[in-house]
Design brief:
Blueprint: H1 9-21, E1 25-30, H2 36-51, E2 55-59, E3 97-101, H3 115-118, E4 121-126, E5 137-140, H4 147-158, H5 164-177, H6 188-199, H7 204-212, H8 219-228, E6 231-232, E7 236-241, H9 243-249, H10 259-264, E8 271-277, E9 283-289, H11 295-301, E10 305-306, E11 310-315, H12 319-338
Parallel strand pairs: 1-2, 1-3, 3-4, 4-5, 7-8
Antiparallel strand pairs: 6-7, 8-9, 9-11, 10-11
Helix pairs in contact: 1-4, 2-4, 2-5, 4-5, 5-6, 5-7, 8-9
Length: 339
């Protein structure tokens, strides 16, 4: 913070770079169940700090004390930086700096949330519009397509040369959070970033195949079960995936992540909802909008958050009851929008 108020993005990047260059021990984390943006951002940040000789520890936590951190998806095992990830129990308990990537709320760190209070300084790098405002230095820009593009600006401020391994990690972040450059938030600047990453040695074919063209033999069965029970109403297309679906199909748990995009293809409905049963019996619910509905606002009212076109929340109850709650919010949203 300055005497005048919060730092703007450029000031925050400069302050973070100065802090990190002088740090001894840094822990870099993403949110629980890290997606491509969180994973790519924390790996690239860690590699840049390692190049400066900083003692850096990348990791992510579990959802709760009874849940292990999500494993790295098998298809992403090609990432050169994957071996740098530390187990949560091996992290220094009181680092000089904690860097939180792609995380709008401290609670999204799961079992690593205590590090927010234990670290001397907390740096947040994020692009979500909603959150709890935690962190001492906040590199936050909700107009950015992904956290990875903000990490690239920090790497430049650190004066570190972009390596092929860093470029792979950042290309993963950019590719996934722009939906292969198809989302409306994708800008000309994002394509320029992609070109720079390719020039730095990013393996665009390898990253694309790993994310979008790799599946277990059981994936088709999982798709059949999930899409076969899909419900389509004028305002919502929705379905759900159970733990039994995973057992019967033999699909990997992470393969539920892209199923929401199959529902989103119904072009007569603006909002898609996919609910995934957790080990605790709760439902991790993802929302996607084709453009007319701000699903982040709906998710926030249901206890979650996200972006205008992609958001999520966790809920108890029956899938049909949860879908009814979403439909009620959609009707409220439509009514508010018509006034």
């Amino acid at each position: 913070m300055t005497a005048e108020g919060p730092l703007d993005v450029e000031q925050a990047i400069g302050a973070a770079a100065e802090l990190l260059r002088g740090a001894r021990t840094v822990v870099v984390v993403g949110h629980i169940d890290p997606d491509g943006d969180a994973l790519g951002s924390l790996l690239a940040t860690s590699a840049a700090l390692d190049a400066l000789g900083v003692d850096v520890h990348p990791s992510w936590g579990g959802r709760d004390a009874e849940t292990l951190p999500a494993p790295l998806e098998p298809a992403l095992s090609f990432l050169p930086l994957r071996g740098r990830v530390r187990a949560p129990e091996d992290l220094p308990p009181r680092p000089d700096v904690l860097v939180c990537c792609d995380t709008a709320a401290a609670t999204r760190l799961g079992t690593l949330q205590p590090l927010v209070d234990a670290a001397a300084t907390v740096v947040v790098i994020d692009h979500h519009a909603v959150g709890d405002g935690f962190g001492d230095i906040r590199i936050v820009d909700d107009s950015a397509s992904c956290t990875g593009v903000l990490v690239l600006r920090l790497i430049d401020a650190l004066g570190v040369e972009l390596t092929p391994a860093m470029a792979d990690a950042l290309y993963l972040a950019l590719l996934t959070d722009t939906g292969r450059f198809s989302f409306s938030a994708t800008s000309p600047a994002d394509h320029r970033v992609a070109a720079r990453l390719l020039e730095a040695g990013a393996d665009q074919v390898g990253v694309t195949r790993a994310v979008y063209e790799s599946a277990s033999p059981g994936y088709l069965g999982l798709v059949a079960r999930t899409t076969g029970r899909a419900q389509v109403t004028p305002e919502l297309v929705w379905s759900w995936t159970t733990r039994e679906d995973l057992d019967l199909s033999g699909a990997d748990p992470h393969e539920t992540d892209g199923l929401i995009e199959l529902l989103r293809r119904v072009d007569t409905v603006d909002v898609a909802l996919l609910m995934r049963e957790t080990e605790s019996g709760r439902w991790r619910s993802s929302l996607r909008s084709r453009g007319s509905t701000d699903v982040a606002a709906i998710a926030q009212r249901l206890g979650g958050g996200g972006h205008h076109l992609a958001a999520g929340f966790t809920a108890d109850g029956d899938p049909s009851d949860i879908a009814d709650r979403v439909r009620a919010e959609l009707h409220t949203h439509a009514g508010a929008g018509s006034r």
